[in-house]
Write a structure and sequence with these properties.
By secondary structure, the protein is of the alpha/beta class. The chain contains twelve helices and ten strands. The protein is about 35% helix and about 10% strand. It has a ten-stranded mixed beta sheet.
């Protein structure tokens, strides 16, 4: 799914409440922090809890004039899909009425036939039936943060009093299931759970969840070194290896694990779904509550400010992101990276994780902090990835041939004065009804 990386959810996996049109500008998504860094949890690994002071000059919630200007300008670009990714902090603190206003403005400023997609990242603490009903009605894709069973989740994801938050998150998941909200589970991989991948995965499967994202926690202290709660490079590699093994042992091809899906997509389709592992940056614009524009969720310091939605043209700002300093960060990886046989699967990782970010100097120190982890997994399981990718290619080819055969038979039946009914066996030979197969 295009996604909101860095905690990201992927709106390509879901429908939208209109239909689309294409335009000759580079598509991009908005990552929006309607309440900035405000949150109702105090997760022990959150970077806002470790020395990064929130901007006290920002409004507590995005004002209505900023919200409407942002929606109007973005929808005026008439992108093939206009994707609004609502992040935090905790975006639900803006209130349900705020998001009702969002949809109202999208309907007002969207054109006929325009695709509008919303994604919401949440810890689930305030979700109730009204929230779930709204999210279902307008087809929001939700990323729900759950790190594992209580012993894992509640050890780090705590409220202001130090109490655990899993019970509320599970209540939110149950409401999403009841109201048929489409959602992913977002799991942060950190020092405390990096050795428990199989346990986490199997527990998540027992909950009935099928769309999973595992996000490595890499934060730096004032001395430039990784914090003691960050995942270790080799620990992240072991986590991926253990996760892959548990996934393969499950025999569940209906499970989507975002990192693995990205690599399989690169191998099968030649394009990925994760910007952190893709060839270039620049898929997004970050919007702060005051309308301030930044290139990415990880690059929001004053030196990266690009303008403001109230005064600047969004397409022009995004073009600067791609062409100027930020757009070149991905390519500034080390010589070792450029010579690595796995380059096409990670492209040096996210620039925020480079040892000496955004500067020259010692080549070795420009590698990703997670390089050792990526290499451990790809060296050990790359051949298995190749095998699974080849199986997917064969399945896709067989499906295309079946669909072509069915289409020919449908045309032949029509030419002879007959028709294939919706409830007839599909002519492709799948054994399914036509309406459930090639007639979709």
């Amino acid at each position: 799914m295009p996604m909101c990386d860095g905690g990201a959810v992927d709106p390509r996996r879901r429908g939208a409440y209109n239909s689309g049109m294409a335009v000759p500008i580079e598509p991009f998504q908005l990552l929006i922090k309607p309440v900035g860094p405000r949150c109702n949890l105090a997760c022990r690994y959150c970077f806002y809890s470790h020395g990064l002071e929130p901007d006290r000059s920002l409004p507590g919630r995005m004002p209505d004039d900023v919200l409407e200007t942002m929606v109007r300008k973005y929808l005026a670009l008439r992108l093939p899909v206009s994707v609004f990714c609502w992040q935090g902090g905790e975006p639900t603190l803006a209130g349900l009425d705020f998001f009702r206003r969002v949809v109202e403005l999208q309907k007002r400023h969207g054109g006929d036939g325009q695709v509008v997609s919303n994604a919401l990242q949440t810890n689930g603490q305030v979700i109730d039936a009204s929230w779930a009903s709204f999210l279902a009605e307008y087809r929001f894709l939700v990323g729900l943060s759950i790190d594992g069973p209580s012993a894992i989740h509640d050890a780090e994801r705590v409220d202001a009093r130090g109490g655990g938050s899993l019970a509320n998150a599970l209540r939110a998941a149950a409401l999403f299931d009841e109201h048929r909200v489409e959602y992913n589970i977002l799991t942060v991989v950190h020092r405390g759970n990096q050795e428990r991948a199989a346990e986490i995965f199997r527990w998540q499967l027992s909950q009935g969840w099928r769309h999973l994202q595992y996000i490595p926690c890499v934060e730096r202290g004032d001395d430039g070194r990784a914090t003691d709660f960050s995942v270790t490079p080799d620990g992240y590699g072991r986590f991926l290896c253990d996760l892959w093994q548990a996934y393969r042992e499950s025999g569940r091809r209906d499970i989507g694990i975002r990192t693995f899906d990205h690599w399989l997509s690169r191998k099968v389709l030649g394009q990925g779904t994760l910007c952190t592992l893709d060839e270039r940056c620049g898929r997004y614009l970050l919007v702060k509550p005051d309308g301030g524009l930044f290139p990415c969720d990880f690059f929001f310091e004053p030196q990266w400010r690009l303008g403001n939605v109230m005064s600047d043209d969004l397409a022009d700002v995004h073009e600067r992101v791609r062409r100027e300093r930020f757009g070149g960060l991905k390519g500034a990886c080390s010589q070792e990276c450029r010579q690595c046989r796995h380059l096409a699967l990670c492209y040096g990782g996210c620039p925020k994780d480079r040892q000496t970010p955004f500067a020259g100097g010692d080549e070795d120190r420009r590698r990703s902090y997670l390089c050792e982890g990526y290499r451990l997994f790809l060296d050990r399981h790359g051949a298995e990835l190749d095998g699974l990718a080849e199986a997917i290619r064969r399945e896709r080819q067989a499906m295309a041939e079946r669909q072509a055969r069915a289409a020919r038979q449908v045309r032949a039946a029509a030419a002879g004065g007959g028709a294939v009914g919706r409830n007839d066996p599909c002519p492709c030979g799948s054994g399914l009804k036509y309406k459930r197969c090639c007639g979709k």
